[in-house]
Design brief:
This protein has 404 residues and is an alpha/beta fold. The protein has helices at 5-11, 17-20, 38-49, 66-79, 90-108, 123-130, 146-149, 172-179, 192-195, 229-242, 248-257, 261-281, 321-330, 360-365, 382-401; strands at 83-87, 114-117, 137-140, 154-160, 184-187, 205-209, 223-227, 285-289, 312-317, 335-336, 346-348, 372-376. The protein has a domain at 261-401: Aspartate Aminotransferase, domain 1 (Alpha-Beta Complex). The protein is 40% helix and 14% strand. The strands form 2 sheets. Strands 1-7-6-5-4-2-3 form a 7-stranded mixed β-sheet, sandwiched between helices. It has a 5-stranded mixed β-sheet with strand order 8-9-12-11-10. It is globular and about 80 Å long. It starts with a helix and ends with a helix. Bound molecules: pyridoxal-5'-phosphate. Residues 89-91, 122, 124-125, 160, 164, 187, 189, 209, 211, 221, 223 line the site of pyridoxal-5'-phosphate. Pyridoxal-5'-phosphate is lined by residues 89-91, 122, 124-125, 160, 164, 187, 189, 209, 211, 221, 223.
Amino acid sequence: MAHHTHTLATHAGREDFREIGVHAPPLDLSTTYPVADLEEGRDSIDALAGGAGQAASPIYARLHNPTVSRYEDAFASLEGAEAGVAYASGMAAIHAVLMALRVRDLEEQKQRNHILAIRPLYGCTDHLLSIGLLGFDVDWVAADQVAHSITQKTAMVLIETPANPTLSLVDIRQVVAQAGEVPVMVDNTFATPILQQPLALGATFSVHSGTKYLGGHGDVLAGLVASSEFWAKRLRQVRILTGGNLHPMAAYLLHRSLPTLPMRVEKAQANAKDLVERLAQHPMIKQVYYPGFGQQDPKGLVGTQMSGGGSVLAIELHGSFADAAHVMRKVELFTPAVSLGSTDSLIEHPAGLTHRIVDEAARTEDGISESMLRISVGIEHAEDLWRDLQQALDSLQLKVRQPA
Ligand SMILES: Cc1ncc(COP(=O)(O)O)c(C=O)c1O
């Protein structure tokens, strides 16, 4: 029976609880497992080394962990994917996707070392691609240039929508259509599977920093990839060989956060919409960036590709780096910190922090200015959030009018 999202989030990965006699996901912290039957052990090694999601014995924690695997299945069902594969962080997940492309090349005896990517991306993703650390050549293209930029050597097209930090949207279907046989990776961190399911739109990989909404409480570092079983096999092989495993305690916490994911996303999104309208009226604000706000979604992707704009927004001040720093100093309820997707609200400065590592010219071209602040809206009361931002912005206005 197909369930609604709230029900799915509450019950996914818990289907066997009655059978095994528990009411919370069992937390298995073993690093190694007894191999009483050597034939079974040998067959398990063969299966897991080949990328299987299960085997008779987990053998060793880098090969398999039941708590992690249980959460992966739950996550995959929310993404509408055949499989989910978990990693120690979002960056480990992105690294694994790039390495899974290499695994396929080794199998097919091909060398596809070209990546197409659309900016902006999260700072470390941008930097990982830009410096060529993993041996891929990257071409940065506009969304409508994908088709004619693809070559025989193109291994993947990589996009983020909504993008960090400008909240710009990319039409996933349009990119997939242009990519043809070339896999498309969508970083779905900002939208979460509650608002957007990239695989249903034709993407090959939907990747998350699980550190954000999936964890949701600012206490878990995690990365997730949703994909077909074909790719999951290769992703697990990469994990076994490079060891970017998610800790089972982190998987347990992610699973604990799953039932409240839809509610958290919905409440934070309602708060964000409220703040966007009010922020846009404040005299110190030059521009508010939010999916679907003003003229920012000419293709109407909010409501079609994604069911709502989410709960991250960015503001550009009439002002400078120092003025942005002033606002970050003045807020009391908002935590001045990087990261996003927590129950509590955060505010950060992309040019100075999360996107500091991005090439300055690219940053400027993407509109990541010195007076931009990125805001992750939490689930507090909207009035309290507004009052906090308002007093910080009013104090900036006062400072501008009456310089010290
Ligand atoms: C959109 C996006 N993708 C990936 C990452 C990397 O995730 P992690 O910090 O969990 O490695 C981040 C981190 O901020 C992010 O915002």
